[in-house]
Amino acid sequence: MAGLGKKVLIVYAHQEPRSFNGSLKDVAVAELGRQGCSITVSDLYAMDFEPRATRNDITGTLSNPETFSYGVEVYEAYKKAALSSDIVQEQKKVQEADLVIFQFPLYWFSVPAILKGWMDRVLCQGFAFDLPGFYDDGFLKGKSAILSLTTGGTAEMYSKTGVSGDVRYFLWPLQHGALHFCGFKVLAPQISFAPEFASEEERRGMVASWAERLKTIWKEEPIDCRPPWYFGQ
Question: Superkingdom of this entry's organism (predicted)?
Answer without folding.
Answer: Eukaryota
